[in-house]
Each structure stands twice: as structure tokens, then as C-alpha cells.
Amino acid sequence: MNNVAFTLKRIRFDENYNPSKNTRATTNFANLARGEKRQENLHNALAMIDNRFNALAHWDNPKSDRYAVELEIISAELNLRPGSNDESFPAIEILKTHIVDHKTGERFEGIVGNNFSSYVRDYDFSVVLTEHNKGQTEFSLPDDFGQLHGNIFKSFVNSAAYKENFNKSPVICLSVSSKNTYVRTGNMHPVLGIEYQQDAPSLTDFYFGKMGLKVRFFMPQGSVAPLAFYFHGDLLSDYTNLELISTISTMETFQKIYRPEIYNANSAAGQCYQPTLHHQDYSLTRIVYDREERSRLAVEQGKFTEAHFIKPNQTLLAQWSAESVL
């Protein structure tokens, strides 16, 4: 049962990007690529990424135009019965960065991961967690919460498909939690910036822990809030400066669009920082984003996953997840 198979599909995320039918509608880049402003959205977001990259990679870059970032959306489709005619399920969607050096003409591999989308995560948070806490006076987690999803992710990272395409472990970069407080440490990295520590683990930390990932929080130079970096291994030693910059520039740009109250605030986080989406002193980007639609669609997609993946394969998934020791 441990021989589930993953198939990878790639699509460029550029000014001509159109979401595929298998892309989660709540995926950050899919949201930008719809509506009347789609081309303007994409152009402006990609320009923001390049400008931020060049601001951080400032050495031997006097005009701040040496580098460009190219992005690929990687979709990992899961087949529980390899060799059968069963349809694959779109399990995971991540981003891959590539770095173009205009000065030398070289193109470098960046980091895989960055953004993270998963139908099963929608199911866990929108269906399982909601039903478990319905009518309860205190919030709690089901005993096996996140276990199946974690095993799917670890199986993907250990799969032949992943190892044939990527030579380093993924790094996923997310927003900090608005429920936690973050305090500066004395640690400073030349690219990642000032390290922060949180007062308590978040639900996201717990969930990504099931995926085999740990977290550190850094606020790069010129940023106004720390970012959460989820990784396996050694974040500071396993990746080059340019690789780290590709992730920072990409994901900070998305966060400025999606959470401007935190990441496009007009003042930077201080020694002790409490993020909030109720903060009013912030600037808007010139990019249209429908945050309300995203929340609504997450519930719809959680129910879709329950109907088309979880329930039809319940026994098989339970058996496979129990056997998975990665």
C-alpha cells in the first residue's frame, strides 16, 4: 500500500497565466488571474517580485536590475492505485522559483515550495475541524488531525517524482499568526534578517509539524513584519543567499497583496510584535484581490474533497496512512 504514485505537472506563472481546471480556486495566484484586471494584476505582481529581489540582492547590482525571478506552479497529482484506470487527485500545489542573472546570462534553480495549496488541508480545516468543534464550549483538535495530510506530504517529498525533479527539500513561506506575539532575538542573518520567536506554537505550526516541517521567523531588511519559514533540515545552511531571496521576494509580494494590514503596514514591527488584520495604518498595492471569495471557496473545496477523495477512498486512505512510516 505504500506504493502510491505522484505525477507532476508544471505551468509557468507569468503575465499569460490562466488557471487550469484542477487548480484550487482559492490558490493565491489563481485569484489574481481572474477578472477584468487579470493581466494588470499579473504584470504588477511579477514586477513587485523582481524589484524586491534586486533590492535584497544589492551587491554588484548598482542599477537594481540585474536579476529576474521566473515562477512555475507545480501540481502534484496523487494516484492511490498506480497502474489502474483510477483518476488522480490534485493533492498538492506549490511554487518553484528560478533566478535569471541578466549580467551573466545564467539561469539558476531557486527554491521549491514557497506557496502551499492543498485540497486535503481545506477538508481538514473547513470540514473536520468545524464538525469536531460544533456545539463545544472549548476548542479542541481531533486525535488524528492532520495525520493523513502530513503523510501525503511526506510521501510526496520522498517520492521518485520529487527526487527526479528537485534536489533540495521544500521551504514554505507563510504569514505569521495574528493570534501570537513575536519577540526579536539577537540573531541576524545577512539575507533573512532579524529573527523573531513566538510566545506559543500556532495551529499552523502543529499542522505543518505533521508534514515533517519546523518553523523559524525572520524579518528581512526592508520588510515590515516577520515571515514564517517552514522547512526540513537547516534553513540557514541548506540554501544559497539567492535561493532564499527568491522565496522572500515572491512570498512577501503575495503577502503584501493578501495581508496588507500586516505586510504593507506603514511602520515596521518592533521589539515585540502582535500582528493583526484590524490594523488600519497600511497601504494597498495596485492589485485587485478578493479575500472574501477565498474564504468562501475554501469551504466549498473542503466539501468537494470530502465527496470526491476522502469518502470514496476512506478505508484505503486509513490503511495507507497507518502503514506510512517515513
H/E element sequence: EHHEEEHHHEEEHEEHHEHH
In whole angstroms, how far apart are the ends?
Answer: 13 Å
Helix content: 25-40%
**Spatial extent as radius of gyration:** 20 Å
Strand order of the largest sheet: 1-2-3-4-5-9-8-7-6-10
Main sheet record: 10 strands, mixed
Gross morphology is globular
- Flag low-confidence runs: none
Helix and strand composition category: alpha+beta
Number of helices: 10
Mean pLDDT: 90
Strand fraction equals 15-25%
Q: Would you report the number of β strands?
A: 10
Brief digest:
36% of the residues lie in helices and 24% in strands. The chain has 326 residues and is an alpha+beta fold. A hairpin with a 7-residue loop joins strand 8 and strand 9 (227-231).
Please describe what this structure looks like.
The structure is a single chain. 36% of the residues lie in helices and 24% in strands. The protein has helices spanning 28-32, 38-56, 119-133, 147-157, 160-165, 203-210, 241-258, 260-263, 291-310, 314-323; strands at residues 5-13, 67-79, 89-101, 107-118, 171-175, 182-189, 193-198, 214-219, 227-231, 272-273. Strands 1-2-3-4-5-9-8-7-6-10 form a ten-stranded mixed beta sheet. The chain is an alpha+beta fold. It is globular, with a radius of gyration of 20 Å. Helix 2 (38-56) packs across helix 7, helix 3 (119-133) packs across helix 9 and helix 4 (147-157) crosses helix 6 (203-210). The chain has ten helices and ten strands. The model has no long low-confidence stretch (mean pLDDT 90).
